[in-house]
Here is the input.
Amino acid sequence: MTKMLIGRRALLGGMTLGASGLLLPGCDRLNASPGVRSLLAGAEQLHYRSQRRVAGSNALAREYARSDMSPVFRVNGNASPVSPAYLDDARRNFIDWRLIVDGLVARPLALSLSDLGSLPQRAQITRHDCVEGWSAIGKWQGPQLGPILRAAGMSSRANFIVFHCADTSGGIPYYESIDLNDAFHPQTILALLMNDHRLSIPHGAPLRLRVERQLGYKHAKFVMRMEARERLEDLYLGKGGYWEDRADYAWYAGI
Amino acid sequence: MLPLVDEEDEVMDPATNLATDPADNPVAGDLVKRHALATRLWHWANAGALIVLLMSGLMIFNAHPRLYWGQYGANPDPAWLEIGARGERGFAKLGPYEITTTGVLGVWRDKDGAIQRRAFPHWATIPSRYSLADARLWHLAFAWLLALGLAAFMIVSLVNRHFQRDLTIGGSEIRPANLWHDIRQHARLRFPTGAAALRYNILQKLSYATVIFILLPLVILTGLTMSPAMTSGWSWLLDLFGGRQSARSLHFIATVGLVGFTIVHLVMVVLAGPINEVRSIISGWYRLPRERGPRS
Here is the structure.
C-alpha cells in the first residue's frame, strides 16, 4: 500500500514536472501567436463596453482633499523633450508657444498659454494611476477640453482627439488619443498648473492632458497639437498611441 | 458530524446528500457519483484561470515590485513589501525584515544564463521575458473567465443545492471539540472511509467556503478597485478597501491565500489517493475508500 502510494506520488510529480516543462515554453509560444493575442485583446472591448456602462458617460473619478495629496509626485516617462524647438520655447517660458487645434474642425486654433489661462478653469485633486501599479495624488488645473473643441467647431465626423507631443522615445514621437466621451468628460482638462504651480518640464510643461478615468500613459505630456480625427488606423502604426503602437498596450486604459 | 461516524448514523442524517435512501446506501468500495457536472467544469476552468492569472500577475507585479497601504503609493512613499536588487544581491523586504533571495527573487538568471534584475523569475511568469503589456493581455482576459465562472458556479450551486447540501456548516460542526478532532485526524492522515468520505468535513467546508466566498470575491473586487474607470462608477470600492494601493496589497495577499489553499489542496489529493480523487473531479465517479490499517 505504502509502495503503491509512493508510486502514485512519483507519477504525479513526474506529470507535474512534465506539464510545466511543456507549459512554460508553450505559454511563450501562445503569447507570440497573433491569433491568441487578438483573442486576448478582445477583452479590451469587453472592458470598454462594460466600464462605460458601469461608469456611465459622465461618472466622475474620485476627487481628494489637500491632505490626501502625495508628498512627492513621481516623475514618469520622458523627463524632457530634446527637440531644439521645444527647448527654445522652454527657455522663453513658452511665451511664443501655441497649442494647435486642427484636423476635423471648422476653425483651426492656435492658443497661447494666456489664451488657455483666460478660459474658465477647472481644478481637481485626483489620483494618477500608472499602468505599472503605483499611484500618486496631485492637484491639476486648466481649461476643460470640451469647450475648446466646440470653439474650434469640431466636425460631426470626428470620433477621436489625438494629442501630438513634443517628446520622443527612440526617435518616435509620443502621441495619445481618446474618444469623444472622454474628450467631453467634465474632468478632462488641459492642465497648466500642478499643485498650484506652473507645470514643470518633468511633469509635462507647458500642457498636460488629464483624462482621469484612464491609466497614466493616456495622460499625454508636452502637448503641442490636438487633432480631431475620424479614425486612428492611418496614423503612425495605427493603434492610437505611442505605447499602443510600440508594445501593444491597450488603447482603452480604463483598467 | 464527525468524519468517522458509523454508516448507520449517516443514513439518518438529513444533511447527507447521497445515501438518504437506505436501499441504495453506498458502502466502502462502491463507485458513486460525487461531483456534479457544473462543479467539475468550474473546477477546471477555475484552475486554468488561476494558473494564468497567477503567472501573469507576477509579471505585472514585476513592473512595480512594491506594495503600499492607502490611496496613493509610489517610489517616494514607504512600501510594506518590496522585492528588488542591490547590486548582485536580490532581496525581499517585509516591513523592517529583509532576507537575501539572490537566484530566486530580485536577481536571477534567465533561460540564456543572463542575469536579470526583476522581482519574480522567468519560470514563474507569463510571458517569461519581461512584458507588462503582454502580461496585462493575459491577466485581464482570464480575469473575465475567473469572475464569470465564479458567478455562474455560485448561481448553479445555489440552484442545484450544492452549497446548501455540502458547504452549510452546522452548529455542532463548528464546536471547538469537533474542530480539534478533525485537525487531529488530518494530522494523523486518517481520512474518512466509506460513505463518510462523500461528505465534506469541517476543515474542508471551511477551506472551500473561504475560497469561494472570501478569497475569490476579494481577489476579483480588489482587482476592479485598481481600475480608474471602475472606481469612477463604483467609488464605494475605494472606501471598501481603503484606496487603490490598499486594494493592490489585498489583491496580492488574497493571491497568497489562494496559492496556499492550492498547495494544501494538492497535498491532500495526493495523500487521499490521487487517482480516485482526480477521477472524481474529471468524470464525477468516486470509489468510496475502504478502511485502512495503520500506516507504516
